[in-house]
Design brief:
The protein is an alpha/beta fold and 372 residues long. Helices cover 39% and strands 13% of the residues.
Length: 372
């Protein structure tokens, strides 16, 4: 990003800091109708209006943000919508005899086929027809598994947004459908930040995470998984454009007073790193215990990834306990070719063996926490 653009970014942040008045409902409607987007850079500070091009410059500069255009409440102001999860107690892993045989059913060839299908879409940009088609493909893939293996009584549906791409929510109701929900999430969109109409295979970001969830869901449902409480799998739309899909779903669940036991977003270096910020420390410790029990890898507490760095932050701001396992130490081992046409499985550092460990973690998390 040029010096000029850095100055523009600093000017926007400074404007947000000095803005005292809440954004009115009239302003929200007027600005949104003009195609402007309401961007939130910092907790406790009012968001600012930006154009789509200016928002794209933030993505190119790796600047984290929430796009709150569709979730901002003029009656509250953004600073009043931030809730913090209390500390929930989690029992240590105790179902190794049940989980280990499930992990043995994970198929690397299935994961490779799933990722091949996802990366074959020209891109999975949230405003593109191929991005919308990718959502339908995930929904249909999950539906086929649920229909073929009905014991778990799993269902799946599209969660529609104002843009063409939908999020996907798959549900395993469990024996007590009223119990707090266990959620596993990944974002299914991709972006070419230099040309949003360009090729964006998104193999690592976040095709790999989407595949982890697809295969974990397949293993559990084909095995007749019936947890004590509900378990849900989410594939979020529009993450690259400001965590749009996860914000909408998290806010919807909060408005409906839906209780959630924990949310994890599986994340490729030979370690599982757990993010320390905007996450729940008890749930993070529980994830670490799962890694110790079920993975060949070690785990470590990562460096902070900052405000609005991924979908877990959408749930954290609504008061739900979250955790984020990340592929290696951040930012040293971050993939330098994400958001481009080069984000493929052939990039140096992409490891199917490492990705497999996250699928193991997803299976263990769903089974262990779904039965607490």
């Amino acid at each position: 990003m040029t010096l000029f653009l850095r100055r523009v970014l600093l000017a926007f942040v400074a404007a947000a800091v000095t803005c005292q008045a809440l954004i009115t409902e009239e302003e929200l409607a007027e600005k949104a109708a003009q195609g402007l987007r309401l961007i939130d850079f910092e907790e406790g500070v009012e968001p600012v209006w930006m154009t789509e091009d200016e928002k794209l410059e933030l993505i190119r500069a790796d600047k984290n943000f929430f796009d709150v255009t569709e979730t901002y409440d003029p009656l509250e102001g953004e600073s009043f919508t931030l809730f913090r999860a209390g500390q929930v107690a989690y029992s240590p892993p105790s179902r190794r005899a049940d989980v280990t045989p499930l992990i043995a059913k994970i198929s690397l060839s299935n994961m490779q086929a799933y990722l091949g299908n996802l990366t074959n879409f020209h891109n999975r940009y949230y405003r593109s027809t191929t991005g919308a088609a990718a959502s339908v493909w995930i929904r249909d893939t999950v539906q086929e598994i649920a229909t073929t293996y009905p014991t778990s009584k799993a269902t799946v549906s599209l969660f529609a947004h104002s843009f063409v791409q939908s999020s996907i929510v798959a549900k395993i109701p469990g024996k007590n459908a009223a119990a707090p929900i266990v959620v596993l999430g990944a974002h299914m969109d991709s972006i070419n930040s230099r040309d949003t109409a360009g090729r964006a295979p998104g193999a690592d970001d976040d095709g790999s995470g989407s595949v982890n969830l697809l295969e974990a869901f397949r293993v559990l449902v084909t095995s007749g998984f019936q947890p004590e409480g509900p378990v849900e799998f989410h594939w979020y739309a529009g993450e690259e454009a400001g965590l749009l899909g996860s914000q909408a779903i998290a806010r919807d669940y909060k408005a409906k007073n839906i209780e959630i036991k924990g949310i994890v977003r599986p994340g490729s270096t030979e370690v599982i790193s757990l993010m320390p910020d905007f996450t729940n420390s008890n749930l993070t410790s529980f994830i670490g215990a799962l890694v110790d029990t079920y993975s060949r890898l070690n785990w470590a507490i990562n460096n902070p990834c900052g405000y609005a760095c991924s979908d877990h932050a959408s749930w954290d701001r609504q008061g739900y306990p979250t955790a984020l396992p990340f592929e290696g130490t951040y930012p040293a081992n971050s993939n330098g070719v994400i958001h481009s046409a080069s984000d493929t499985i052939s990039v140096s550092g992409f490891s199917w063996d490492h990705t497999l460990e996250y699928t193991k973690l997803a299976v263990a998390y769903a089974y262990e926490l779904g039965n607490q």
